[in-house]
């Protein structure tokens, strides 16, 4: 039952030329984002905001958690993005019996060479879809989360770096909460953004049906960028200017959540907020972050990090509190 | 003092009964610890308030004597308040203050010769006295002014200081405030001390309240507004009766005329500067002999004005004749030619005949005054006893003056200098009798000073200034100086004003004009009475005055003559303007430089100063000379302007207008700083203010872009708005904005403000 879909993981080495990667000019990075978004929009109807967020999270070196009901196109979105940027796509279907090695890979004895050979798991991809992550027990979850945090996996004492770019897009099923292993807050914190697709409205669904009924549109999707472009765009994001007033604003937003909730936004969350804002600025074609960028990315980057303390009541207070913070904390 | 001790004991017992220990401890704690800035200010104001009324009394004692005693007793009262504040309860201290006040009054009455034991039955008289005082009779005109001032001063000072120290600020204002109000009602208070006192009283209450509430300094703005309003209003509404300097001189006859300054007011007469002469006819007097027509007599000199002390009484019966044996009776019939408030008579008047008697009042000095304004064609007849003693009888008269004369007519202001006394001694050296002394003084003044109507008002003591410093003056200066010189020598003398005999039109008829207004000294000789002296150089005076009449005739002034007084044969020279330069006619217009002994100008120097028409100059003396200079605001104007500015600023602060003004000013005025970041940020701030006025302000948590987007959805914004926003965004959040973009942003906002701004903007 290990649903590992390893679509060609032969090229083992990640390009170790990251030091030499030159940042794209902001305008080009922005047009790259726009091209990817347009491309993805060919297969995903509506949800432009979510597409933008997934793209910018990738550029900000973050990971995405999508929580939704089944069948709204989570997998489709992930695959479309991977395809658009001509990157390795892999997928792990999380089930209650999933083992960590099912994610990271195993050493297999090769009869011919009479040696152990590493058989990389699905985590060795550029865009990894971790489907229904809350269906697997914590042990399996943590294997993925460690890989996310450290961009490397250790199998049998041997540490292997993951390819770059490496982005996990995890999905979480909002239905059947009794049969799931809810991700603890500490692990949620490792996702830069938490998104939700939602159902399409009737109009969008009509369009969707028109496309999907004939054939599988994802097969016809052509890449609009390559892996190198993505890496260069990431550099662009890293070089984006964040001035003192914006940093202050982000810090004040975080402080507000800490003042008004049992557990507020962690410093990691604040860093994620600013990085997401940087990526957003680049996607807008700007070499600097404005408070609007912070405001736009704040709900998706902060809400899931906030807890009122009582288990099971995470989401609502988080979203509300972020909205409060945005309408209260003054902008300089 | 034993009474006070036992009172303290009983008070502390009372305290111990109700609140054992705590009350006294609390009072002590307040007293020691409560020295907040506001408390210090409140106490300072209390001292100023005390100082205000004491200052008025002190000015009084400077004239009548007793300054040192007054200062001492006020200081003692303040010391007593300081000691009493932590020791005595109010139930003890306030009665002590009351007793002190009553004791002071008793002292006054005893000195004034009123038996204190008689006071109770005389209560209504006493009350009437006080009502008279409060009705505007000045303390200065009360005979025992010195005693009253000293008796009056300490109790309010003690009470106010005591209550202020105990933190009872509201009550503290009452004693000193009442003292001040009383002085205002009597008319002794001048504008400045009254105003200062009122401000200080307000300050005591306000600062006291602030101290009690532990308020912050920003709450002072209301107080500032109140105080400044008080000051400014007081300048436009003189609330002190007769308090604004100089206005008391105006009594029907214009201020600034010689006549106005010497014959205008029945109560007081000021020593002024330059004056003009009115050539109009005032009276026609039918009399067998010419005389100086006296209209007023003054006995008390303050250094710059003459005051008549004592009460007026209605004329009921003929007055006592002078003690001289050989007096001649003269009956005069006076016809009034223009409205006046004086009643000229030859000295010394004895009786009034006819209806006028009912409208006549008699002063303490034996002078007649009308109780109504006399109108044209009013007539009255007076009989006078004219004292015309021989030189021998005067020389024999001796110095045996009656007490009542010595009490009234020897007063000298404290301000008189030692140099004055030395000079007087030098002038009268060798003279033995008062008559010789008077003659010496008279001739000294006549010979050493010349006559001029255009002089600066003397600084300080007018008599000293005229004797020691000035070279010319007019009758007022001569007469005043002679009176003070005589008093310096212990000879009773007084200051009389009125008119000279005038123009004789028939053998028994005299036309008296404004130009005849005059002032002269009268000297008392035992067994003779008051004798008129004339220190003013007569010839010079007559020339000046006659010139003025002739000039007025020439100008066609209709009131210069009566039917009879016109010259039968007009001097052809005077009809010819070409041959008669008016400036040359006018010795009064001498160059002011002549007053300076170091600069002897030749008399032929062209005269630029037509000061015959110059009005009283308040001491500046620049008269008509300052024609070409740029008007510079005076110090007072600057202070007033500053005050108003402070008040407005405080009011603005209170109402928030200042912030609105600053915002508006910022909207219109942006100076390039040379730093593009700052320029762009300021430009955007202006834009925000503009948009805020036109639509709504940006909410604090709203990002600028979201704000603009929200506005744009309501009303399409000018594109330049976005340019400015982006320039500012680059400057603030990006790595900077280039100078050209910053300048563009600034100019764009300039244009937007011009177009949509609150001033001159057009709404669409």
TrEMBL record, chain A:
<dbReference type="InterPro" id="IPR050764">
    <property type="entry name" value="CbbQ/NirQ/NorQ/GpvN"/>
</dbReference>
<dbReference type="InterPro" id="IPR011703">
    <property type="entry name" value="ATPase_AAA-3"/>
</dbReference>
<dbReference type="GO" id="GO:0005524">
    <property type="term" value="F:ATP binding"/>
</dbReference>
<dbReference type="Pfam" id="PF07726">
    <property type="entry name" value="AAA_3"/>
</dbReference>
<dbReference type="InterPro" id="IPR041628">
    <property type="entry name" value="ChlI/MoxR_AAA_lid"/>
</dbReference>
<feature type="domain" description="AAA+ ATPase">
    <location>
        <begin position="60"/>
        <end position="201"/>
    </location>
</feature>
<dbReference type="Pfam" id="PF17863">
    <property type="entry name" value="AAA_lid_2"/>
</dbReference>
<dbReference type="GO" id="GO:0016887">
    <property type="term" value="F:ATP hydrolysis activity"/>
</dbReference>
<dbReference type="InterPro" id="IPR027417">
    <property type="entry name" value="P-loop_NTPase"/>
</dbReference>
<feature type="region of interest" description="Disordered">
    <location>
        <begin position="1"/>
        <end position="20"/>
    </location>
</feature>
<protein>
    <submittedName>
        <fullName>ATPase AAA</fullName>
    </submittedName>
</protein>
<dbReference type="InterPro" id="IPR003593">
    <property type="entry name" value="AAA+_ATPase"/>
</dbReference>
UniProtKB/TrEMBL annotation, chain B:
<protein>
    <submittedName>
        <fullName>Transglutaminase</fullName>
    </submittedName>
</protein>
<feature type="domain" description="Transglutaminase-like">
    <location>
        <begin position="467"/>
        <end position="537"/>
    </location>
</feature>
<dbReference type="InterPro" id="IPR021878">
    <property type="entry name" value="TgpA_N"/>
</dbReference>
<feature type="transmembrane region" description="Helical">
    <location>
        <begin position="145"/>
        <end position="164"/>
    </location>
</feature>
<feature type="transmembrane region" description="Helical">
    <location>
        <begin position="60"/>
        <end position="85"/>
    </location>
</feature>
<dbReference type="Pfam" id="PF01841">
    <property type="entry name" value="Transglut_core"/>
</dbReference>
<feature type="transmembrane region" description="Helical">
    <location>
        <begin position="169"/>
        <end position="185"/>
    </location>
</feature>
<feature type="compositionally biased region" description="Acidic residues">
    <location>
        <begin position="561"/>
        <end position="597"/>
    </location>
</feature>
<feature type="transmembrane region" description="Helical">
    <location>
        <begin position="191"/>
        <end position="210"/>
    </location>
</feature>
<keyword id="KW-1133">Transmembrane helix</keyword>
<dbReference type="InterPro" id="IPR002931">
    <property type="entry name" value="Transglutaminase-like"/>
</dbReference>
<feature type="compositionally biased region" description="Gly residues">
    <location>
        <begin position="616"/>
        <end position="627"/>
    </location>
</feature>
<feature type="transmembrane region" description="Helical">
    <location>
        <begin position="222"/>
        <end position="240"/>
    </location>
</feature>
<dbReference type="InterPro" id="IPR038765">
    <property type="entry name" value="Papain-like_cys_pep_sf"/>
</dbReference>
<keyword id="KW-0472">Membrane</keyword>
<keyword id="KW-0812">Transmembrane</keyword>
<feature type="transmembrane region" description="Helical">
    <location>
        <begin position="31"/>
        <end position="54"/>
    </location>
</feature>
<dbReference type="Pfam" id="PF11992">
    <property type="entry name" value="TgpA_N"/>
</dbReference>
<feature type="transmembrane region" description="Helical">
    <location>
        <begin position="92"/>
        <end position="114"/>
    </location>
</feature>
<dbReference type="InterPro" id="IPR052901">
    <property type="entry name" value="Bact_TGase-like"/>
</dbReference>
<feature type="region of interest" description="Disordered">
    <location>
        <begin position="551"/>
        <end position="633"/>
    </location>
</feature>
């Amino acid at each position: 039952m290990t649903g590992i879909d390893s679509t060609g993981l032969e090229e083992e080495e990640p390009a170790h030329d990251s030091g030499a990667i030159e940042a794209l000019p902001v305008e080009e990075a922005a047009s790259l984002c726009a091209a990817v978004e347009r491309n993805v929009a060919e297969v995903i109807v509506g949800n432009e905001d979510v597409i933008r967020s997934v793209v910018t999270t990738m550029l900000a070196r973050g990971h995405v958690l999508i929580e939704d009901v089944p069948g709204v196109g989570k997998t489709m979105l992930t695959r479309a993005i991977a395809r658009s940027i001509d990157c390795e796509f892999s997928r792990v279907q999380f089930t209650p019996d999933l083992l960590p090695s099912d994610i990271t890979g195993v050493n297999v004895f090769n009869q011919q060479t009479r040696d152990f050979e590493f058989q990389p798991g699905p985590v060795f991809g550029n865009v990894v879809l971790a489907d229904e992550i809350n269906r697997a027990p914590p042990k399996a979850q943590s294997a993925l989360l460690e890989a996310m945090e450290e961009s490397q996996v250790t199998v049998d004492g041997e540490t292997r770096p993951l390819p770059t770019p490496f982005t996990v897009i995890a999905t979480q099923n909002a239905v059947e909460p009794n049969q799931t292993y809810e991700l603890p807050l500490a692990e949620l914190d490792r996702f830069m953004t938490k998104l939700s697709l939602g159902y399409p409205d009737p109009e969008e669904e009509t369009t969707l049906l028109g496309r999907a009924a004939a054939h599988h549109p994802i097969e016809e999707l052509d890449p609009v960028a390559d892996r190198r472009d993505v890496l260069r765009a990431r550099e662009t994001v890293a070089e984006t200017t964040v001035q003192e007033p914006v940093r202050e604003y982000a810090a004040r937003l975080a402080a507000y959540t800490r003042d008004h909730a049992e557990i507020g936004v962690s410093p990691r969350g604040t860093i994620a907020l600013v990085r997401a804002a940087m990526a957003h600025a680049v996607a807008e074609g700007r070499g600097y972050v404005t408070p609007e960028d912070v405001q736009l990315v704040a709900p998706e980057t902060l809400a899931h990090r906030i807890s009122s303390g009582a288990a099971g009541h995470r989401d609502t207070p988080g979203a509300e509190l972020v909205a409060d913070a945005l309408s209260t904390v003054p902008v300089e | 003092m034993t009474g006070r001790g036992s009172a303290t004991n009983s008070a502390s017992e009372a305290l111990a009964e109700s609140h054992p220990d705590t009350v006294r401890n609390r009072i002590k704690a307040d007293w020691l610890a409560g020295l907040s800035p506001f408390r210090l200010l409140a106490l300072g104001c209390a001292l100023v308030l005390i100082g205000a009324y004491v200052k008025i009394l002190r000015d009084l004692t400077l004239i009548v004597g007793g300054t040192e005693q007054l200062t001492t007793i006020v200081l003692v009262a303040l010391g007593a308040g300081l000691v009493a504040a932590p020791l005595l309860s109010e139930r003890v201290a306030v009665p002590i203050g009351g007793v002190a006040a009553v004791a002071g009054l008793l002292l006054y009455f005893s000195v004034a010769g009123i038996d204190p034991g008689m006071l109770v039955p005389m209560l209504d008289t006493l009350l009437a006295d006080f009502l008279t005082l409060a009705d505007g009779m000045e303390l200065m005109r009360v005979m025992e002014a010195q005693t009253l001032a000293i008796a009056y001063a300490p109790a309010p000072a003690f009470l106010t200081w005591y209550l202020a120290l105990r933190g009872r600020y509201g009550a503290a204002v009452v004693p000193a405030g009442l003292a001040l109000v009383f002085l205002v009602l009597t008319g002794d208070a001048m504008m400045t001390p009254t105003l200062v006192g009122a401000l200080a009283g307000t300050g005591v209450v306000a600062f006291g309240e602030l101290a009690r509430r532990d308020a912050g300094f920003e709450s002072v703005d209301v107080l500032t507004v109140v105080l400044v309003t008080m000051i400014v209003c007081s300048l436009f509404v003189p609330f002190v009766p007769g308090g604004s300097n100089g206005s008391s001189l105006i009594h029907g006859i214009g201020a600034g005329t010689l006549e106005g300054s010497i014959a205008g007011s029945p109560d007081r007469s000021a020593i002024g500067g330059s004056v003009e002469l009115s050539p109009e006819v005032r009276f026609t007097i039918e009399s067998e002999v010419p005389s100086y027509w006296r209209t007023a007599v003054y006995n008390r000199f303050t250094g710059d004005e003459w005051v008549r002390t004592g009460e007026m009484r209605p004329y009921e019966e003929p007055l006592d004749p002078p003690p001289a044996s050989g007096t001649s009776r003269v009956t005069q019939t006076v016809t009034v030619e223009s409205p006046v408030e004086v009643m000229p008579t030859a000295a010394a008047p004895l009786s009034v005949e006819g209806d006028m008697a009912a409208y006549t009042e008699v002063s303490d000095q034996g002078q007649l005054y009308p109780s109504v304004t006399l109108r044209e064609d009013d007539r009255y007849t007076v009989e006078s006893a004219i004292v015309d003693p021989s030189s021998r009888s005067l020389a024999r008269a001796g110095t045996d003056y009656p007490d009542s004369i010595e009490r009234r007519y020897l007063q000298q202001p404290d301000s008189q200098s030692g140099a004055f006394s030395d000079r007087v001694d030098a002038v009268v050296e060798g003279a033995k009798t008062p008559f010789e002394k008077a003659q010496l003084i008279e001739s000294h003044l006549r010979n050493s000073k010349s006559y001029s109507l255009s002089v600066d008002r003397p600084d300080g003591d007018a008599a000293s200034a005229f004797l020691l410093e000035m070279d010319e003056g007019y009758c007022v200066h001569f007469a005043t100086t002679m009176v003070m010189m005589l008093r310096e020598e212990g000879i009773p003398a007084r200051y009389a004003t009125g008119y000279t005999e005038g123009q004789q039109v028939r053998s028994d008829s005299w036309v008296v004009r404004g130009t005849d207004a005059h002032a002269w000294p009268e000297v008392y000789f035992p067994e003779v009475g008051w004798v008129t002296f004339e220190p003013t150089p007569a010839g010079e005076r007559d020339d000046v005055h006659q010139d003025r009449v002739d000039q007025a005739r020439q100008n066609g002034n209709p009131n210069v003559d009566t039917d009879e007084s016109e010259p039968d044969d007009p001097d052809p020279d005077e009809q010819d303007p070409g041959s008669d330069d008016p400036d040359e006619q006018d010795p009064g217009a001498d160059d002011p430089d002549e007053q300076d002994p170091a600069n002897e100008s030749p008399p032929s120097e062209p005269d630029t100063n037509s000061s015959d028409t110059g009005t009283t100059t308040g001491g500046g003396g620049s008269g008509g000379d300052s024609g070409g200079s740029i008007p510079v605001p005076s110090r007072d104007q600057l202070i007033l302007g500053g005050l108003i500015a402070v008040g407005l600023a405080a009011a603005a602060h209170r109402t928030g207008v200042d912030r609105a003004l600053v915002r508006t000013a910022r909207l219109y005025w942006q100076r390039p700083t040379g730093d593009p970041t700052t320029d762009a940020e300021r430009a955007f701030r202006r834009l925000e203010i503009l948009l805020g006025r036109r639509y709504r302000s940006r909410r604090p948590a709203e990002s600028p872009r979201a704000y603009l987007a929200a506005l744009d959805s309501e009303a399409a914004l000018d594109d330049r708005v976005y340019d400015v926003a982006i320039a500012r965004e680059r400057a603030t959040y990006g790595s900077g904005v280039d100078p050209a973009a910053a300048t563009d942003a600034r100019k764009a906002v300039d244009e937007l403000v011009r177009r949509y701004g609150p001033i001159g903007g057009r709404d669409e």
